[in-house]
Amino acid sequence: MGRLLYEFTESFRIAFAQIRANKMRSVLTALGVIIGIVAVTLMGTAINGINIGFNRSLAILGDDILYVQKWPWHNVEDWWNYADRPPLQIEDAEKLNRIIETTPRSLLDIAVPVVARGAMGVKAGEYQVNGVFVFGTTADYSRIMYADVGEGRVFNDSEAASGRQICVIGLDVAQALFPNRSALGGKVLIGNQPFTVIGVLAKQGSFLGLFSLDTQAFMPIRTYRKYFGVGERGAELRVKIRDKNKMNDAIDELTGAMRRVRGQLPGERDNFSINQQEAFKAQIDPVKSGIAIAGFAITGLALFVGAIGIMNITFVSVKERTKEIGTRKALGARRSTILLQFLIEAVAISLVGGLLGLGLTDVLGVLIKSTMPALPIEFSTFLVFLGMGLSVVTGVLSGFIPALGASRLDPVVALRYE
Fold it and tell me: Using CA atoms, how far apart are residues 310 and 349, in angstroms rounded to an integer?
């Protein structure tokens, strides 16, 4: 055991002495490995960032919310199967809530109606914000929303029932319309109708970097219907479930309850869709797959080039040190010792490339975060081990054949080599 440890230590010493003696050659040899490790770690950080950003976005929207709507969020190629569906009504939420309240051990908590017709402009004096998502809802919306109220409050049941012209706005809207003061109590025009701001939501950020969740405004649903109508799309019902780990069971219960609300007979196709945030994952997964395929292709090509470079340099090193190998073997060095020496040298060069690649990835990650903060980049310990593991494997595979050739040299022939 002591002899093996000595040979291993001595092989490391000789290998790193050779690398120090030929620094530039070693770095250039490891360039392919550097590029490969940068590619695989950047790919991994991008995928990690997408996953984390996606999960954070779902948490902001509420990952325990189901959306009952006329149209599904996916597979709408056969749109004619959905076009004739009757729109959902605001009153459907009341019917659904009565069913939920009378169902023993229901997995559903509450249904809240939401009506919206798209983005609108909001004004306050000389300031205006366009593209604000304005919608109407009930006071129960506070039970399903995950945004905190930064200032003020959400309207109550009596205010909603009386149809008061009040609203709650997102932080970006508040800062744009009231840049030098609090928005609470301020007057805004939504669709040329005056509203009083009674609440401002805390900062939420954006959903997957695609749209801001801070550019929204909502008001009592009765007020919204009075001034803006409901439109052909009708309402949507947002249903909060009690246990998101029982999502499938909750969907089955909600389907049955909605069929009762809609008065559907057995055998009839559902004339509504129950959407959930899993639909977004189906759209994100191809993006992640594309990144992974491109990253692995670049990684494989770069590591192959790096392996060829390390193999060539190891062959050259064997040729340059043929007499040294012959002398060591003549003095009693075993084949395994020579093999281990050159194999460690190849692995060491590859590890140097891996370390430089990881360092470069870290620098690039910092630069990307500082210049493009919306781009998801998230480094992980797993990627460090993955990068180092790939470096070791590349070194072993590329250095084995030259190292094996060196270990098989005849000492007599090696000593005569010119």
Answer: 8
